[in-house]
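Work through this:
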Amino acid sequence: MPKETANQEVMQENPAEKKEVINKPESKGQITDGYVSELRDENKKRRHENEELSKKMQETENSAKAALEEVKALQEKANKKILRAELKVSAAKYGLRDLDDIQLADLSSIKIDDNGDVLGVDEALSALKEKKGYLFEEVSTSNSRVFHQPNPASSSGNQTDIVSKMTDEQYAEHERKWLSSL
């Protein structure tokens, strides 16, 4: 089969592909300078394509590493906020008088697990309460809020009302009277 016919058949089989067709000699003894030159040009072109793809791959890897570092930094920032919030809630639950005193607790054992749960806060605050109990006030176990108001009509001078049983209007009126008596 002549060279031109073979090349035409390849082009007809794959018309969508626009590859250069190298005129390959029919036998080993027919390697020409033109054929070698075409192979060198093709090799040069492929090396150049390979270098371009390698550069793109390196750029992609670098941007992925940068994005991963940014995600880790944001995760660390979010974990610190979660930890601070959990410490504040637990400190109030334990009756810590001043939230600044949280820094006196040993916080090294407090961790955030993969589910976002904070572990070790209760232990740290219990240990702080045991060592420095004066930083804490007694916490009422009752869920009722108690409102004290001086009552000139009572013999003791104080009357206690359960706020949780008041309507919003009663509470507002009670609070207004109490504040005006101060």
Summary: The CA atoms of residues 31 and 126 lie 88 Å apart. The radius of gyration is 40 Å. Confidence is low (pLDDT under 50) at residues 1-11, 14-18, 143-161.
